Amino acid sequence: MSGIKVRPSVAVGTAAALGLVAGGLAYASMWPTSQFFGRTLIAGSDPDELALTFDDGPNDAATPMLLEVLARHQVRATFFIIGSFARQRPEIVRRVAAEGHLIGNHTMTHPRLALESARKVRQELVDCSAVLEDLIGAPVRYFRPPFGSRRPMVLQLARELSLIPVTWNVTCHDWEPIGREGILQRMSAGVERNRAPGVERNRARGCGSNILLHDGSHRAMGTYRMDTVYAVEQVLQAQPSRRWVTLDAWSEPQ
Q1: Which residue stretches of 99-178 are H helix?
Q2: pLDDT in tens, 207-239
Q3: Does the residue 2 lie in any domain?
Q4: Is residue 3 part of a domain?
Q5: 105 near 142, Cβ under 8 Å?
Q6: Nearest-5° Cα angle at 118, 114 to 121
Q7: How many CA atoms lie within 13 A of 140 on its CB side?
Q8: Cα angle for residues 203, 209, 215 (degrees, 5° grid)
Q9: Could you give phi then psi for residue 85, rounded to 5 degrees?
Q10: pTM value surpassing 0.85
């Protein structure tokens, strides 16, 4: 050994820089609007278009009642479904499709894909699509990574499987105990933020809103999600003239 000594200030500076790099990569792999690791579909350019998207179903404690709310208001939504739950409640998945909603792949078991091997990621996507396509008799074209967790390999594999990666730009935090009013407040704030011009992507005008909600939980079937159902009912009653779309209304990112 040469006995080279590193000044403490240099070591601290290097550690801090590495920490910043690690933090930046973690941000890029999880933050829903980040495009650092590859393009994802977020929303269209029309700020008057909104998409209700629901993750982690089907859930017999909430999904059927949510479908009734959407039917009353003649609104179509997008459901990102967990394959293992679809196997448990195939009749709900068939109903979602029969009532005209768009169905997407939310993996088989809801892992953090950025931390998984390529083999595991592929299997999660292939198995989930196979279950869903068998139930609804149609191709599944959209995929949302659980937790938004992704890296370039994840997005590349999704595209190889003809899946369009989707994230979101309105987070309602309905997995937290904030009640229907808290959900509505977060939804309203996110939509209004998207409607205004901003620096993100050098937006000269607003953009559409891709609203993240949950009709289930990846932890277990039967999770209480009625605050989400009530919040959706309230927003559809209060704003019947809104232009609600499913994700296939927006172009795939290039």
Answers
A1: 118-136, 152-160
A2: 999 999 999 999 999 999 999 999 999 999 998
A3: no
A4: no
A5: yes
A6: 65
A7: 32
A8: 155
A9: -75, -35
A10: yes
Helices (H) and strands (E) in the chain, counts: 8, 8
As given in the structure block, the two tokens for residue 180 are 């229907």
Task: Report if residue 254 sits inside a domain.
Answer: no
Render 176-232 in DSSP notation, one character per residue: SS-HHHHHHHHHHHHHHHHHS--SGGG-SS---EEEEEESSBTTBTT---HHHHHHH
Between the CA of residue 251 and those of 44, 71, 129, 146, what are the distances in Å?
7, 26, 21, 22
Catalytic residues: 55, 214
Q: Which two tokens stand for residue 81?
A: 């479904």
Dump pLDDT digits (tens) for 69-109.
999 999 999 999 999 999 999 999 999 999 999 999 999 99
Look at residue 151 and tell me if it is in a domain: yes
Q: What is the domain-level CATH number for residue 103? A: 3.20.20.370
Domain of residue 137, residue span: 8-248
Angle at 246 between CA 227 and CA 231, to 5 degrees: 15
Tally of domains in the chain:
1
d(CA 110, CA 108): 6
Q: How far apart are CA 46 and CA 35, in angstroms?
A: 20
C-beta of residue 70 within 8 angstroms of C-beta of residue 94: no
What's the Cα-to-Cα distance from 123 to each of 129, 158, 219, rounded to whole Å?
A: 10, 11, 20
- As a whole number of angstroms, the distance between CA 57 and CA 214 comes to 7
Phi and psi torsions of 55, nearest 5°: -105, 160
